[in-house]
């Protein structure tokens, strides 16, 4: 029950928190057999819950680090959310971890017998970075264990996928999910060969396939690559009416720009131009969003909705304001920052619903409740109004930029798109 409550809440709140979600290849996930979804892991708890919410209608179980299950209340809540603990060597005493993991694998086997989907992060840890770390061998060993329990009859499909965010620690993020074709352990078993070699080949191949669905940035290239990616996003800006986009085109464009930066030498023209361009933007307080003017219909949208959406957002946003202050002060791990902030936003929105509806119903009746529902959801178009206003402000600064900078950007657009 709690799982579906949280899932519905996520699907509603995502329109405020995320600017846009791109998803491709989801139909490659088999629904008639047990599945391991294998992904990179960069954004803590948010990675798992968002994938689970997006993969409707089939519920998704998630492997989560076991130390967070230690307390009885946390254990009850997390298991109600269909999370399965996996205990790493660092999570406690070895013998206790082994016993706990055996219980988790017993549960996993029962889930797989019912052809369930389970999400696993084979990197075994979350780090805020746009690159894939070497995968651990645990996933492959678990698959071998599941198949041996069923005398080799169970075929667990591994579906590698990439999980990409435009930025971290800030709302109005964009998320890109892209799935590969499933692979099976049997495809890596040579006749008369040993199982260990097959498990190693499976792990390495899954790692390569995840990387193919990611924006994978070299260490040290983060700043210069993000400059190129911001240009790509501005040139490929979607209509504000589109939220779910079932296409891989955006990921392909970002990967192309990333690979161009990787291939360029340190003193290359591309790297020099990107540094010069970003340096000018920083010096004059201009953002990439301001490089294009507002269209006529965007002006109409902003003018008509500015006042009502502004009121809605500013009368109902205080939980997020104080929530951000809380996570800024208390959350020390960057990879958990956005997950906790997102969770506070969910809780605050439900407080507004559970407290606001009864009070307004008592004082204003059903008409008041209808008004409150409409008024609350004006917070969604406010996000677009706010972004259009920022575009207008930064475009005024961009118009004053020297022609040399505008020519430089045009050259960069031709190079990286």
Show unreliable segments. Answer: none
- What do the pLDDT scores average to? 88
Could you state the CATH homologous superfamily of the largest domain?
Answer: Glycerol-3-phosphate (1)-acyltransferase
**Distance linking N and C termini:** 46 Å
CATH class of the largest domain, named Alpha Beta
**Total strand segments:** 8
Helix and strand pattern: HEEHEHEHEHEEHHEHHHHHHH
Number of helices: 14
User: DSSP strand (E) fraction?
Assistant: 5-15%
**CATH topology description of the largest domain:** Glycerol-3-phosphate (1)-acyltransferase
What's the CATH architecture of the largest domain? 3-Layer(aba) Sandwich
Description:
Helices cover 58% and strands 11% of the residues. The model has no long low-confidence stretch (mean pLDDT 88). It has three domains: 2-212, Glycerol-3-phosphate (1)-acyltransferase (3-Layer(aba) Sandwich), CATH 3.40.1130; 222-286 and 401-416, no CATH class; 296-399, no CATH class. The protein is of the alpha/beta class and 417 residues long. It starts with a helix and ends with a helix. A hairpin with a 7-residue loop joins β6 (157-165) and β7. It contains 14 helices and eight strands. It has helices at residues 2-17, 45-54, 72-80, 94-113, 138-149, 195-212, 222-235, 249-263, 269-284, 296-316, 318-330, 334-377, 379-399, 403-416; strands at residues 18-24, 35-39, 60-65, 83-86, 117-120, 157-165, 173-179, 244-245. Strands 4-3-5-2-6-7-1-8 form an eight-stranded mixed beta sheet, sandwiched between helices. α1 crosses α12 and α10 (296-316) packs across α13.
């Amino acid at each position: 029950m709690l799982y579906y409550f949280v899932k519905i809440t996520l699907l509603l709140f995502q329109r405020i928190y995320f600017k846009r979600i791109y998803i491709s290849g989801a139909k490659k996930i088999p629904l008639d057999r047990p599945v391991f979804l294998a992904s990179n892991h960069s954004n803590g708890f948010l990675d798992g819950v968002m994938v689970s919410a997006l993969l409707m209608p089939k519920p998704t179980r998630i492997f989560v680090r076991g130390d967070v299950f230690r307390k009885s209340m946390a254990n009850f809540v997390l298991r109600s959310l269909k999370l399965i603990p996996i205990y790493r060597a660092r999570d406690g005493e070895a013998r206790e971890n082994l016993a706990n993991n055996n219980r988790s694998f017993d549960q996993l086997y029962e889930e797989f017998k019912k052809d369930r989907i389970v999400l696993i992060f084979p990197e075994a840890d979350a780090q805020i970075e746009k690159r894939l770390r070497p995968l651990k061998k645990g996933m492959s060993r678990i698959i071998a264990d599941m198949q041996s329990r069923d005398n080799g009859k169970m075929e667990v499909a591994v579906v590698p996928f990439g999980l990409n965010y435009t930025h971290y620690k800030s709302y109005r993020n964009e998320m890109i999910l892209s799935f590969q074709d499933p692979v099976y352990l049997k495809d890596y078993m040579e006749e008369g060969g040993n199982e260990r070699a097959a498990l190693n080949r499976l792990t390495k191949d899954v790692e390569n396939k995840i990387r193919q669905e990611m924006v994978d940035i070299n260490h040290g290239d983060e700043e210069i690559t993000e400059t190129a990616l911001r240009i790509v996003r501005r040139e490929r800006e979607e209509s504000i009416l589109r939220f779910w986009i079932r296409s891989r085109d955006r990921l392909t464009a970002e990967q192309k720009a990333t690979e161009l930066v990787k291939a360029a030498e340190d003193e290359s023209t591309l790297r020099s131009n990107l540094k010069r361009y970003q340096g000018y933007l920083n010096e004059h307080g201009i953002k990439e969003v301001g490089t294009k003017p507002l269209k006529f219909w965007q002006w109409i949208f902003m003018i008509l909705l500015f006042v009502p959406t502004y009121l809605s957002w500013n009368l109902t946003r205080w939980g997020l304001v104080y929530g951000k202050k809380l996570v800024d002060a208390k959350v020390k791990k960057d990879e958990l920052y956005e997950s906790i902030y997102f969770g506070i936003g969910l809780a605050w929105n439900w407080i507004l619903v559970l407290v606001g509806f009864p009070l307004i119903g008592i004082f204003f009746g059903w008409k008041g409740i209808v008004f409150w529902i409409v008024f609350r959801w004006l917070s969604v178009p406010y996000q677009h109004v706010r972004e259009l206003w920022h575009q207008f402000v930064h475009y005024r600064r961009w118009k004053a930029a020297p022609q040399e900078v505008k020519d430089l950007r045009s050259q960069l657009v031709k190079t990286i798109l």
